[in-house]
Hints:
Blueprint: H1 2-8, H2 17-48, H3 65-94, E1 101-108, E2 111-115, E3 121-123, E4 125-129, E5 134-140, E6 145-149, E7 154-158, E8 164-168, E9 174-180, E10 193-198, H4 200-209, H5 219-229, E11 255-257, E12 263-265, H6 268-276, H7 299-310
Parallel strand pairs: 1-5, 4-10
Antiparallel strand pairs: 1-2, 2-3, 5-8, 6-7, 6-9, 9-10, 11-12
Helix pairs in contact: 2-3, 5-7
Amino acid sequence: xxxxxxxxxxxxxxxxxxxxxxxxxxxxxxxxxxxxxxxxxxxxxxxxxxxxxxxxxxxxxxxxxxxxxxxxxxxxxxxxxxxxxxxxxxxxxxxxxxxxxxxxxxxxxxxxxxxxxxxxxxxxxxxxxxxxxxxxxxxxxxxxxxxxxxxxxxxxxxxxxxxxxxxxxxxxxxxxxxxxxxxxxxxxxxxxxxxxxxxxxxxxxxxxxxxxxxxxxxxxxxxxxxxxxxxxxxxxxxxxxxxxxxxxxxxxxxxxxxxxxxxxxxxxxxxxxxxxxxxxxxxxxxxxxxxxxxxxxxxxxxxxxxxxxxxxx
Length: 313
């Protein structure tokens, strides 16, 4: 069974994965047995009752109570087993242990934002401790998203104006992929992230120090690192190519025509406002889809991003 799991499914890295995989295999094995039995029966009866001459007449059979009860009760039992098994797993994933560490998850077009209890925030990178329950309380800033970690066998819709939750307990240290599995716009396929499972000591250290960037780096290099870390490259290129948002190359001090016809110079104030209040002024030809980074990045970090954009003149 382990080899079958490895062949058909991603690695099982959470306490709930084994139960989910068992139900998956039960459905598959049962389906294969039924398929094989029905196929053999069709072939057998097709051969046994084939017409041998023009005088053969098919007998009239009104019904067979035992047969009808059998083929009704057996599928009913199988369906009830699958329902009960699946419902139990669903309730287990919905009800987190009382000692679970809680992380807020915000889905935005097109990134994941993670908020921790000490105020730390990470973009597209979820950090969590191994062998400890972690509860994710999630909502969306715009449209419906869906949070899915295949290695942990957890998936839950992330909705605007409403909170949903799911929990997991990772069983091994390492990195796994997070996907959005609800179509949410043109960059839906790029809305992925990573979950880093750390030891408790490493996690505590990360919470204390945060995802720090070397302060000795030049401001433009720090800005480039911030742009990458905050998922800006999913929509904004650095080489002039068109994307969901304007390219950073050549942006600095260029004249930008807004949707209302106003022409604005892309100076420090324009860039700052575009980061904190991105939908106040929309460049002509683009949609108002950028999320706000208010409370996510500091004034110092905005300055570094501006210096990076300046370097791409």
